[in-house]
């Protein structure tokens, strides 16, 4: 009798071990749904970026749900607004992880915000794909559960400045950057080309985050005699700079970075923005790939959301496609561990909006191919020149 009880006890213990993983399953997944979380600036000037990125996520999710979801489970998108305020980013990420209990994270606000929230993401262990602000701190050193789609700010600036330097040999240069992590990164990329090509920099300035009046800065740029200008603003700042240069009746060869490579910026710049150069790793809407993406997106979002599409919609779409594909490869019972392992195995994934995306063992950065574009104010578009 005792022997039979012992066997029964062992069988009961084994059965408890068998159901253990189901009871302690990773959060954010039910029989019918998988929750994916995001925190973006949905209000204030940076909303042009955050809203667009969230629309990209929604397009990929709508596309997947229309095809049956992830192995039969529909994807639910949980989105929080941080207003581009770092404290709210941290609060928002903690909420969607701890309260909403999402299965994975995507997107995540700006560069400073992503850097600040990294300890929260690492501690949680949640699978995360960042697509809004690719800065090296996010993948150097590589973090087990965090993957970044895009290209580094430094490499983007280096590519742009090299192009402009080769196109304008012997010219005088001017630069202005924001006084934060973003500005430091832009300046670092610029300085590396200055050193390598021995560029003649006659003006170098900084501006305060949120600055609106650039009359003094642009007057100094004019007085310096700068013939090539790297405008290191984001959105409103670049618009204000170009309008000031127009008032001063000067038009240096100007390069801007991809955060400002959006059509509303060209519209607000008007003729002052015609001919400016930009660097990016997503396709322009004026090209065949861009037009195909817009056709795909139109039936999947509302009319208002369709009007809010810009280059950040493409980055969001690509990252969401990669994340969804990784979860799907885990089969009927996806886990965080499996999703992270499958993200690591991502190899040459085509999204239609940028070069193929790949990660790898210890590689958490997709290192996207760059291209140079030039603004056409008449059509409010950017067209590739390289």
SSE order and pairing:
Blueprint (H helix, E strand, L loop, with lengths): L1 H22 L9 E8 L6 H20 L7 E8 L4 H14 L4 E4 L3 H14 L3 E3 L15 E3 L4 H15 L4 E7 L2 H17 L2 E8 L7 H10 L3 E5 L3 H12 L5 E4 L6 H7 L7 E4 L7 H10 L5 H5 L3 H18 L7 H9 L26 E6 L4 E4 L2
Parallel strand pairs: 1-2, 1-3, 3-4, 4-5, 6-7, 6-8, 8-9, 9-10
Antiparallel strand pairs: 10-11, 11-12
Helix pairs in contact: 2-12, 3-4, 5-6, 8-9, 12-13
Family: Belongs to the leucine-binding protein family.
Pfam families: Peripla_BP_6 (PF13458)
Protein name: Amino acid/amide ABC transporter substrate-binding protein (HAAT family)
Can you describe this structure?
Keywords: Signal. Residues 1-24 form the signal peptide. Belongs to the leucine-binding protein family. InterPro entries: Leu-bd, Peripla_BP_I. This protein is an alpha/beta fold and 386 residues long. It has two domains: 33-151 and 288-369, Response regulator (Rossmann fold), CATH 3.40.50.2300; 154-280, Response regulator (Rossmann fold, 3-Layer(aba) Sandwich), CATH 3.40.50. It has 13 helices and twelve strands. α2 packs parallel to α12 (311-328) and α5 (153-167) runs parallel beside α6 (181-197). 46% of the residues are buried. The model is unreliable at 1-24 (pLDDT under 50).
């Amino acid at each position: 009798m005792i022997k039979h009880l012992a066997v029964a006890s062992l069988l009961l213990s084994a059965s408890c071990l068998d159901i253990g993983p189901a009871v302690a399953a990773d959060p954010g997944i039910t029989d019918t749904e998988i929750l994916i979380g995001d925190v973006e600036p949905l209000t204030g000037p940076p909303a042009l970026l955050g809203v667009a990125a969230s629309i990209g996520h929604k397009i990929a999710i709508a596309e997947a749900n229309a095809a049956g979801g992830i192995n039969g489970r529909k994807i639910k998108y949980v989105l929080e607004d941080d207003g581009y305020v770092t404290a709210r980013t941290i609060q928002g990420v903690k909420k969607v992880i701890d309260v909403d209990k999402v299965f994975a994270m995507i997107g995540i606000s700006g560069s400073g915000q992503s850097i600040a929230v990294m300890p929260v993401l690492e501690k949680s262990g949640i699978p995360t794909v960042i697509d809004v602000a690719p800065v090296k701190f996010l993948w150097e050193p590589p973090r087990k559960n965090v993957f970044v789609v895009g290209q580094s700010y430094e490499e983007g600036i280096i590519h742009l400045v090299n192009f402009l330097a080769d196109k304008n040999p012997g010219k005088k240069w001017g630069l202005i950057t924001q006084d934060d992590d973003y500005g430091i990164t832009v300046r670092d990329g610029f300085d590396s080309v200055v050193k390598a090509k021995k560029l003649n920099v006659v003006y170098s300035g900084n501006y305060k985050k949120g600055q609106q009046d650039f009359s003094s800065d642009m007057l100094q740029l004019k007085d310096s005699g700068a013939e090539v200008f790297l405008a290191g603003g984001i959105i409103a700042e670049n618009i204000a700079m170009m309008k000031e240069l127009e008032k001063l009746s000067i038009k240096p060869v100007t390069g801007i970075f991809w955060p400002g490579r959006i059509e509303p910026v060209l519209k607000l710049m008007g003729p002052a923005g015609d001919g400016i150069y930009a660097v990016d790793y997503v396709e322009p809407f004026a090209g065949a790939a861009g037009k195909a993406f817009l056709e795909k997106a139109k039936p999947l979002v509302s009319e208002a959301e369709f009007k809010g599409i810009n280059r950040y919609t493409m980055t969001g779409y690509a990252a969401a496609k990669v994340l969804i594909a990784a979860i799907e490869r885990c089969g009927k019972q996806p886990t965080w561990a499996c999703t992270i392992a499958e993200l690591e195995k991502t190899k040459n994934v085509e999204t239609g909006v940028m070069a193929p995306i790949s990660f790898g063992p210890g590689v958490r950065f997709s290192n996207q191919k760059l291209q140079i574009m030039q603004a056409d104010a008449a059509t409010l578009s950017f067209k590739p020149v390289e």
